[in-house]
Design goal:
The complex is a heterodimer of chains A (403) and B (299).
Chain A lengths: L2 H22 L2 E7 L7 H20 L8 E7 L4 H13 L5 E4 L3 H14 L3 E3 L6 H4 L5 E3 L4 H14 L4 E7 L2 H16 L3 E7 L7 H9 L6 E5 L4 H11 L9 E4 L7 H6 L7 E4 L9 H14 L5 H20 L4 H10 L2 E2 L4 E2 L20 E4 L12 E3 L14
Parallel strand pairs in A: 1-2, 1-3, 3-4, 4-5, 6-7, 6-8, 8-9, 9-10
Antiparallel strand pairs in A: 10-13, 11-12, 13-14
Chain B lengths: L1 H31 L6 H19 L3 H24 L10 H24 L13 E4 L2 E4 H23 L1 H11 L1 H6 L4 H23 L11 H14 L4 H21 L3 H4 L3 H15 L14
Helix pairs in contact in B: 1-5, 1-8, 1-9, 1-10, 2-3, 2-4, 2-8, 2-9, 3-8, 5-6, 5-8, 6-8, 9-10, 9-12, 10-12
């Protein structure tokens, strides 16, 4: 064989090897969320499980753009400083193509700042503070509802139901205070009497504050908790033990943390008649993707996924869809892809319009599905509980126990 | 008046649990001259120990509390033997710093280990007794009533043990002077082990008593751990009776503070601030705390 032919063959082989190596190089994404105290680690764990389920499915189906997908998980502990440091680590050390996840709004804001400065796409899973998208960073997208998307409707529903005195118990975070502000503004417009109680999430004994609510002024006929995670369990239990709520005279309305099955272990029958906002489509409306996800989650982790898990699974799906749409895992291409996608996930069809009025609508998934359920029997699964809102999905028009 | 009484009774109940935990911390400090930053984690482990004792052995909840205390006593003994004994054998030069690092590290280790072993989701043992005690205007869940009663029994038993038994007096002797105690035949190292075990058992008992009232989570000991430090300074470092009075006082002041602060919105979020204010006030009036006495360093 002539030397020139050998050289050509070696060069060709080298090229082939390089191309294969590049093809095998994984696309790396960064996930952020609370996996240890003082963050809401139970919510974070559900999110991480859902994401890993999605990663395994994508890789089993051949990966993204012919490359395997790898997610680096960062525990942000519910602390803004940890979130900020995690985002820097993911960007500089792991060279991630995009960052997604997070449960706490205050932490998300810190991460979004870093992502914005570095030009890295950031997609939020369960972070509600209006400010996050109101900042209108081109890199920041959100699947979770803004507080103004959900709590405006929730407050209006409370007024429609005829509640005259509302107690708002809100955590002292961006999410809690922002949510309380939204609820309060609507109730004011509707001339509904209201009291606000701010709590610290480290708190365990809420009894003095509940006693105060019971004793001062008009007794509330509903308590609206703008509190994430399991701190709500204590509020429910202690209110119930005092004979305050939930009962015929005073209803209780909480958020997604109350959808975990542990609510029955901690609160027992006190959880019966709780009203809970569920950020998901009801089971009767699930598409095939949602059914498959719920079955796979149940099989792998031996528990039903909550709306938070569905959001987490969809967040990964959205980022993957943006990469496919862009045909590239370059950060700027993913941002472009996110701005253009229309992705069918388990919880809806996602798109992120660049609307700037109202400010929080920027890169915000607008058609967030949500409904309010009421537990009516002990150990009831959220999917079996009657739906009281919205009308299009409602399975009952009566709140229990009747007044 | 009813409102004031309800707040006071609730504060008293919570204060008694605080006192039980703080008494254990005081005992450890008094005898070993070590501030155990891991005390909150022992409280958490006590709660889980009771939970699993009740669930796996099928014992009644109050027996679960007893089992948790025994388990935490043994755990405390093991930790003292493994982690703290190097301080007394001349292997450690900077004993105070060593104690801080070891006990602080312990709390991080145990919290994260609990997250892995017990999982991230809340757990709760069954109630001591379902229902609520109602007498006129007084409303008190039976769980709280029973926890407070058991805490009183344990605190009285502790006071009796320290004052009336030879082992209790030996602990007191070591707390006053390790060398003098050794001269009269008391083995200080053994007393260190006993004190650390007892302190851990008291923390575990407090955690087991609170478990049905609140819920179990790996970080449940963080806030009570901080409260316990406030209480032992408030009551006077090294004074068991001071920690009991301090615990009750803290619980009542926090409850009344939340109930009567003019701004109802912020009152609950300021709970810890009421404790801090109480501490500042007491230290201004009595710099050694309510029942404080002068102390020697670890000899």
């Amino acid at each position: 064989m002539k030397p020139i032919a050998i050289a050509v063959m070696i060069a060709a082989a080298t090229c082939l090897l390089t191309v294969n190596a590049l093809a095998a190089e994984p696309i790396v994404l960064g996930w952020v969320g609370p996996l240890s105290p003082p963050g809401n680690f139970s919510g974070g764990q559900e999110m991480q499980w859902a994401v890993q389920l999605g990663v395994d499915e994508i890789n089993k189906a051949g990966g993204l753009l012919g490359r395997p997908l790898k997610v680096v998980y960062e525990d942000t502990k519910g602390q803004p400083a940890e979130g900020s440091a995690a985002a820097v680590r993911l960007i500089t050390r792991d060279k991630v193509a995009a960052i997604f996840g997070e449960f706490h709004s205050s932490v998300a804001l810190a991460e979004a700042d870093v992502a914005h400065k570095q030009g890295v796409p950031w997609v939020g899973t369960d972070v509600w503070a209006d400010k996050l998208t109101a900042l209108q960073y081109p890199e920041v997208f959100r699947l979770a509802p803004a507080n103004s998307l959900v709590y405006v409707k929730v407050a209006a529903w409370m007024a429609e139901q005829g509640f005259k005195h509302v107690a708002i118990i809100a955590e002292n975070t961006d999410f809690g205070q922002d949510g309380a502000r939204v609820v309060s503004n609507i109730l004011k417009e509707k001339h509904v009497d209201q009291k606000l109680v701010t709590i610290d999430l480290n708190q365990q004994d809420f009894t003095p504050a509940l006693l105060r609510l019971m004793s001062e002024g008009a007794k509330p006929d509903i308590i609206q908790m703008v509190v994430a995670g399991q701190a709500q369990y204590q509020i429910v239990k202690q209110a119930c033990q005092l004979g305050f709520a939930p009962n015929a005279k005073t209803k209780m309305l909480g958020s997604t943390g109350l959808l975990q099955k542990e609510v029955w272990e901690v609160d027992g029958d006190c959880a019966k008649h709780l009203l809970v906002v569920n950020i998901a489509t009801p089971k009767s409306q699930w598409n095939n993707k949602a059914k498959a996800f719920a079955a796979a989650f149940q099989k792998k982790y031996n528990r039903a996924p909550t709306g938070v898990a569905m959001e987490a699974y969809d967040t990964l799906g959205v980022v993957a869809a943006a990469i496919r749409k862009a045909g590239s895992a370059e950060r700027k291409d993913i941002i472009k892809g996110l701005s253009q996608i229309s992705y069918v996930g388990v919880n809806g069809t996602y798109s992120f319009p660049a609307t700037t009025d109202p400010a929080w609508a920027y890169h915000q998934f607008i058609d967030v599905p949500f409904h309010i359920i009421q537990y009516t029997a002990s150990n009831q699964a959220p999917s079996d509980a009657p739906i009281v809102y919205p009308k299009k999905w409602a399975t009952t028009d009566k709140l229990l126990p009747a007044n | 008046m009813t409102y004031f009484m309800l707040l006071t009774v609730n504060g008293l109940v919570i204060g008694l649990i605080y006192a039980l935990m703080a008494a254990g911390l005081t005992l450890v400090f008094s005898v070993l001259k070590v501030v155990n930053f891991g005390h909150g984690s022992f409280y958490m482990l006590g709660g889980y120990a009771a939970y699993y004792a009740i669930g796996l052995l099928g014992v009644p909840p109050l027996v679960g509390v007893f089992i948790a205390m025994v388990a935490l006593f043994l755990f405390g003994v093991a930790i003292e033997w493994l982690a703290l004994q190097p301080m007394y054998t001349g292997k450690v030069e900077r004993k105070d710093e060593y104690a801080i690092i070891v006990t602080f590290g312990l709390t991080i280790l145990l919290t994260n280990l609990a997250l892995v072993v017990f999982g991230p989701f809340s757990k709760s043992p069954p109630a001591f007794l379902q229902g609520t005690f109602i007498a006129g205007p007084l409303i008190l869940p039976y769980d709280r009533l029973i926890a407070a009663a058991v805490a009183v029994v344990l605190l009285v038993a502790l006071a009796w043990f320290l004052a009336r038994t030879s082992l209790g007096q030996a602990l007191d002797a070591v707390s006053q002077s390790r060398e003098s105690a050794a001269v009269i035949g008391i083995n200080p190292k053994r007393m260190y082990t006993v004190a650390f075990g007892l302190g851990s058992a008291l923390a575990g008992g407090a955690g087991a008593l609170i478990a049905p009232i609140f819920a179990l989570s790996p970080n449940m000991g963080e806030l009570p751990g901080v409260q316990a430090f406030i209480i032992i300074v408030l009551g006077g470092m090294g004074s068991v009776s001071g920690s009991i009075i301090g615990g009750i006082l803290l619980g009542v002041v926090q409850g009344l503070g939340v109930g009567f602060l003019p701004d109802p919105n912020r009152a609950l979020a300021y709970t810890q601030a009421f404790g801090a204010l109480l501490l500042i006030f007491v230290l201004l009036v009595r710099p050694t705390g309510l029942f404080g006495r002068a102390h020697t360093r670890l000899e």
